[in-house]
Amino acid sequence: MRMSLAQRVLLTWLFTLLFLIMLVLKLDEKAPWNWFLIFIPVWIFDTILLVMLIVKMAGRCKSGFDPRNGSQNIKKKAWYLVAMLLKLAFCLALCAKLQRFTAMKLAYVFIPLWALLLGGMAELGYNIFYVRRD
């Protein structure tokens, strides 16, 4: 399952456009939809990304793969998986809060997003300042 860069960009723009159109309709009170329905394009896109990531990670299990060859690669893929799950947790908590399913404080809703941002900053700092000693 290989997608070209143009296909990935087009898919990203399509799902972003659908989400923004649905969000604007909800905020303008033109559509009385549930907040979970508004986020469906985001979740479809995230599901596609998760499936592609899991398929790439499962490719390491095939015979003939040298595990010493990509130890850094699997760490990066694991971080991507954790980041996607944190984003999913944030979106679900946000929808539950907006739909008034829970009386959770807004600060608790943003904990997965803050963890994602801190992890992203740590990953960025590691990639910038890490010096390889070969």
UniProtKB/TrEMBL annotation:
Lineage: Eukaryota, Metazoa, Chordata, Craniata, Vertebrata
Keyword field: Membrane, Transmembrane, Transmembrane helix
Name assigned to this protein: TMM60 protein
UniProt entry tagged with the keyword Transmembrane helix: yes
Annotated source species: Urocolius indicus
Pfam families reported in the protein's UniProt record: Tmemb_185A
Residues that span the membrane, as ranges: 36-58, 78-100, 106-129
